[in-house]
Amino acid sequence: IGAGNVAMDVARTALRSGARKVTVYARSRHISAIDDEVELTELDGAEIVCGKAICAIDDKGPVFETAIFDEDNNVVGYEEELDHASADTVVIAASQVPKDKLVLTTGGLETDHRGLLSVDEHGMTTVPGVFAAGDVVNGPLTVVHAVAGANLAVEGMTSYLGL
C-alpha cells in the first residue's frame, strides 16, 4: 500500500521472492515513484491500482474506500461501499510520517507519544502476528535503520510462524 519508490521496491522484491501476485494500491492517480521504478514494477508483473484509500486491515486483508475523481483527476469523494481485497500479506509503504488512520481503524494497534507504532523486541506490534519496521516505528531515519528494523521484523515473523 503506497505509490512511492519504496512501495515499488517492495512489490518487485516480493515478486522476485516468489509471490504469485502483487498489487500496489495508490490513494490517488498520482504515483510519486519515479517513472522508471513504476515501469520496472509493472514489467516485473505487479498490478498498480489507483484510487484506493486504505481504511482498515482485517484478517482477510486490506479494506479500501474507492475514490471518485473529477475531470482533473482530483479525488472529490469516495464510494459508499467499501472494497475488501483478499491478501495473505499486506505491506504498508506509505510516507515518512506516521499516519493515524490505520491505528484508529485497526483494533489493538498502539502507538507511543509521537504516534509511532509500538513494537516489541521482535518487531511485533500490539496485535499478535502483525509486525512493523521502518519510519512508522522509528520515525524518519536512514534506510540503514529501516533495513535493520525490517531484518528484526523478518526474524520475528519467522519465529512467530515457527519456520
Any overview of this molecule?
This protein is 29% helix and 18% strand. By secondary structure, the chain is α+β, with helices and mostly antiparallel strands. The protein folds into two domains: 1-94, FAD/NAD(P)-binding domain; 95-163, FAD/NAD(P)-binding domain (3-Layer(bba) Sandwich). The strands form two sheets. Strands 3, 4, 5 and 6 form a four-stranded antiparallel β-sheet that branches. The protein has a two-stranded parallel ribbon with strand order 1-2. α1 runs parallel beside α2. The longest helix is centred in the C-terminal third of the chain and has 18 residues, at 143-160. The protein is globular and about 50 Å long. The mean pLDDT is 90.
- How much is the radius of gyration in Å? 16 Å
- Briefly note the CATH topology name of the largest domain: FAD/NAD(P)-binding domain
Total count of helical runs of at least 4 residues: 5
Query: How much of the residues is beta strand, in percent?
Result: 15-25%
Averaged pLDDT = 90
Order of helices and strands: HEHEEEEEHHH
Quickly give the structural class.
alpha+beta
Note the gap between the termini.
Answer: 26 Å
Overall CATH class of the largest domain: Alpha Beta
Low-confidence stretches: none
CATH architecture of the largest domain: 3-Layer(bba) Sandwich
Instruction: Describe the largest sheet.
Output: 4 strands, antiparallel
Estimate percent helicity: 25-40%
**CATH H-tier superfamily of the largest domain:** FAD/NAD(P)-binding domain
Please tell me the total number of domains: 2
Overall form: globular
> What's the number of extended β-strand segments?
6
